[in-house]
């Protein structure tokens, strides 16, 4: 672990403010926030800015939640981010992803054209930082311009987050 979670005795008003846009007051503590947020709050200003952006992707995005979670899980898989994977398997199941779909995305396989285009978009952005014309056209069949924009930023955000998680050595949370 390169960057450990902030110790409980160092949580202050700046940390509380950083988390206030994402977590209710009762979860703004080292035990309830989880290892990722407890690590990120070592830099409260960055955390607040990141969470504001991430909050849009999670709660205000035009991208349907099921497709968001499909993309995030593929990102987590590609980046070998166990922390991100565990959190988003749970979230994916909450929005309708089945074990079969989750197993398929690990292999880069999907049962319908839109899901397959989402997986291709993740892989292409991670490999070359651009979605191919063919994949963009496939996405355009079902997603409007704003949804496609939200998809690109979702993939980029969670790719960056996976890199941070992996680099900082954030350990998966213990099951409660």
Structure description:
The longest helix is centred in the C-terminal third of the chain and has 24 residues, at 145-168. The chain has helices spanning 13-19, 30-33, 35-40, 44-60, 65-78, 82-94, 99-107, 113-128, 133-140, 145-168. The protein is elongated and about 50 Å long. The model has no long low-confidence stretch (mean pLDDT 96). 67% of the residues lie in helices and 0% in strands. The chain has two domains: 8-59, no CATH class; 62-168, Up-down Bundle (AhpD-like), CATH 1.20.1290. By secondary structure, the protein is mostly helical.
Summarize the structure.
The chain contains ten helices and no strands.
What descriptors fit this protein?
2 domains, mainly alpha, elongated, 176 residues, AhpD-like
Number of helices: 10
Q: Which percent bin holds the helix content? A: 55-70%
Rounded mean pLDDT score: 96
CATH architecture classification of the largest domain: Up-down Bundle
Assembly type of the shown chains?
A: single chain
Span between termini: 22 Å
Strand-residue fraction? under 5%
CATH H-level homologous superfamily name of the largest domain: AhpD-like
| CATH topology grouping of the largest domain | AhpD-like
Number of strands: 0
Give me the strand/helix succession: HHHHHHHHHH
Number of folding domains?
Answer: 2
In the predicted model, the low-confidence regions spanning at least 5 consecutive residues are none
Q: In CATH's first tier, which class of the largest domain applies?
A: Mainly Alpha
Computed CA radius of gyration, to the nearest angstrom: 17 Å
Structural class, by secondary structure, is mainly alpha
| Anisotropy-based shape | elongated
Main beta sheet strand tally, sense and closure: none
Organism: Mycolicibacterium moriokaense
Pfam families: CMD
GO molecular function, one term: peroxiredoxin activity
Protein name: Alkylhydroperoxidase family enzyme
């Amino acid at each position: 672990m390169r960057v450990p979670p902030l110790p409980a005795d160092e949580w202050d008003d700046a940390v509380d403010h950083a988390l206030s846009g994402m977590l209710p007051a009762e979860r703004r503590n080292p035990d309830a926030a989880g290892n990722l947020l407890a690590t990120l709050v070592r830099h409260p200003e960055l955390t607040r800015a990141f969470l504001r952006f991430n909050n849009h992707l999670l709660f205000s995005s035009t991208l349907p939640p099921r497709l968001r979670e499909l993309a995030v899980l593929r990102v987590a898989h590609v980046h070998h981010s166990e922390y991100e994977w565990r959190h988003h398997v749970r979230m994916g199941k909450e929005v309708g992803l089945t074990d079969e779909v989750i197993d398929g995305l690990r292999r880069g396989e999907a049962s319908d054209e839109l899901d397959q285009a989402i997986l291709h978009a993740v892989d292409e952005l991670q490999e070359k930082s651009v979605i191919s014309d063919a994949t963009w056209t496939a996405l355009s069949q079902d997603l409007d311009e704003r949804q496609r924009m939200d998809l690109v930023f979702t993939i980029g955000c969670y790719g960056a987050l996976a890199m941070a998680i992996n680099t900082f050595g954030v350990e998966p949370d213990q099951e409660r």
